[in-house]
Design goal:
About 50% of the residues lie in helices and about 0% in strands. By secondary structure, it is mainly alpha-helical. It has a domain of about 50 residues: Transcription Termination Factor Rho, Rna-binding Domain, Chain A, Domain 1 (Orthogonal Bundle). Helix 4 runs antiparallel to helix 6 and helix 5 packs parallel to helix 6. The longest helix has 19 residues.
Length: about 120
Amino acid sequence: MAAKKKTTAKTKKNLKNMDQAHGKTEEYQPSTLEQIWGDDGLGKYNTLSEPTYTEQLNEMSKVDMQAHATQVGIMPIDNVELMKTRLVKEFKKHVSLYRRPSHTPKDVKLNKELKDILGEGK
């Protein structure tokens, strides 16, 4: 049989003072399970910056843009400008899933008249 390890008070004190790192970036508040598990939104478009994405679209040829639209889930069309606007619109929808307002003002002061109006539903 293996001998049992003895823990001393010194090692217990050291464990209480230690912090554990989780390695996640805290850029946004997760709102879905996929985001909690580590999906940062970069898989579909490779960026969450609109100017960077529009620059990528401007560098694409018509065929490349149609292939990209198919990958994203948009029906490719012949009109390049219309397809570009649709892709940017879908990109904005995608980014809105990952970027939410970080804080809301908590100290909102209401006057008596507004409190009476809001209190009518009670």
